[in-house]
Amino acid sequence: MKNSRLFEILYLLVEKRAVTAGELARRLEVSERTIYRDIDALSAAGIPVFTQKGQGGGIRLMDQFVLDRALLSREEQDEILFALQATLATGGGTEGDTLARLSALFRREGDGWLEVDFTDWGSGARERENFALVKRSILARCPLSFTYYSSAGEKSRRTVEPARLVFKGGCWYLSAYCRTRRDWRIFRLVRMEDLRPEEGTCPPRQSPERLEAPLPGEYRGVDLRLRFQPSAAWRVRDYFHPKQITREPDGCLLVNCAFPEDRWLLSFLLSFGSRLEVLSPVYWRDILAGEIKKCLAVYETGQTMSGLREYSDRRDGEERPAQDKEVFPMEERKFCQCCGMPLDKPEDAGTEAGGAPSGDYCHYCYQNGTFTAPDATMDDIIGFNLTFNEENGHPFGPREEAEKMMRSWFPTLKRWRKL
Fold first, then answer.
1. CA-closest candidate to residue 61, choices 21, 20, 18, 32
2. Can you tell me whether residue 366 is helix, strand or coil?
3. Cβ distance 203 to 160 under 8 Å?
4. Which of 9, 43, 168, 385 is deepest in the core (most CB within 10 A)?
5. Range with the lowest mean pLDDT among 99-103, 320-324, 342-346?
6. Helix or strand or coil: residue 134?
């Protein structure tokens, strides 16, 4: 209790600089004598606090004192504030008084200097509600029941003894002893619905030190060798470890990996569309080809999953709306093979030595068969594009993302490919 009161006094002194002993005594509900003993304790701890008599006097801190000069470096302050903000973002804290007080002590002015959100896009509200209820169940050691959807879409009602919350792979999971399955399981919070605390308490159980998702009885792995087009590089580098990726001279990426052999793998590979070729095993090429034929049957022959035609026949010569063409810009648009500028109009193209339009370069980079900046490096062009991005409202996204995209894409452009 005393330590909490000392912190409260220190916080008030940093915030107001001068407070009377009577004000502190009334606020903290102690006697003035206790306040003076607390001031002596702060002084003995090295805090430069003193009393001043007369008009405008009271208990004061030295004008140049801030907590970081006594105890913490600026980097350590940032780490503490980040940890507190992250805790609040998870729902682990019920209010932000501690964060506000430390921000004042560290002289971090202004709200919203940092935001931490661990939830998936589009799942925030439900996941935060689930997090709060699961947290209360863990702390109260009470059983919890809920409806759960597995990754395969199977629905079941579970009653569990919640043990701990785990943040892994960008998602929140509950590690719990499942009374339904009579074993330890992990549950992804966003797949939990209709959560209800149950009566009773959870008996003491020793949870596994490291809990992994159980593999199904029919589990079978497959070693894959994949080739990706350069335009898929950003996704490839998001999903695979750099040691699994080999870049070929033409910019394509070879990936050697292993996955569980199931429907999820099929949908994952199909999500890359024509930008992926499975090299081995050969039977997976047949699996993909069969699934693609089923897709073609839906869109080319008029077959539908419901058996009903819910759309009008396409008219001969009908074109996609112009805005739809932006859905796959890397597939349908031509780009300057030096700076990446879109070549959407004839006047955007540079010129060859005889005056003919260039099919590869824009007029900024290439004129009369030569580069306008023959000594420029790829880093020079990327730097120019990043400056353009900053000065024009970030059309390529935040600087870090834009640079990551360019450094992945530019080595595939014709001028830089040989590098």
1. 18
2. strand
3. no
4. 9
5. 320-324
6. helix
Q: What is the largest CA-CA distance in the chain?
A: 96
- Structure tokens given for 117: 């959100």
**pLDDT value at position 254?**
94
Q: Which pLDDT score, from 0 to 100, does residue 205 have?
A: 85
Distance CA 143, CA 11 (A): 40
- pLDDT of 340 strictly over 80: yes
**Res 331: pLDDT:** 45
Q: How far is CA 63 from CA 45, 67, 68, 309, in A?
A: 18, 12, 14, 78
Q: In whole angstroms, give the CA distance from residue 9 to residue 404.
A: 48
Instruction: Tell me the HSE value of 150 on the side-chain side, using a 13 A CA sphere.
Output: 12
**CA–CA separation, 172 and 92 (whole Å):** 13
Query: Quick one: tokens of 45?
Result: 């701890």
Structure tokens at 404: 């990551």
| Dihedral over alpha carbons 411, 395, 331, 370 (to 10 degrees) | -50
Q: Is the pTM of this model over 0.85?
A: no
pLDDT in tens, 233-264: 878 887 788 888 998 888 889 999 988 887 77
The one-letter code for the residue type at 30 is: V
